[in-house]
Predict the structure.
Amino acid sequence: MPPIDPKKPLADLGKLEKISLELNEANARIKTLAAELGNAKKSLAGKDLEIEQARATISRLTVEISGLKDRLGKPDVASPKMRFEDFAKTLRGAVEKLNGEIRPELGGMRIDSMEVELKSGVDISDGVKLTQLESAALSPESVSTFRFTLHPAVSIKISE
């Protein structure tokens, strides 16, 4: 190392001032960045809270949707039921009503043939009853059909 000259300054003052200015600018920049970091952390904390609230809302709505699906899938009303005897009485009543609307001199109508195709559920909990199919099972192919032929019930008198 060369010897130190007491008449010469140890450092260049211009360079020191320049370094001092750069340090002050760096400190100011650090303070600005620290403030921005603090604001970003606060904003992030607020977003975390919003995310948690959104998750809670999604969870609550998922439970509500599940409950609504259960209610839609299982109606509170019981399926209509009809006993076979009641079905026969209903059919007989319809024929009697038809006969009541026909002129008496024609003698009324009688069922000549009947074809019944039942596409329904059967309930045997209290006798044998026809029940309406569940909504999921209803389709055009699941409709019951009743076909019958009516003929006049004319009485013929043979005279001598």
Notes: The chain is about 50% helix and 15% strand.
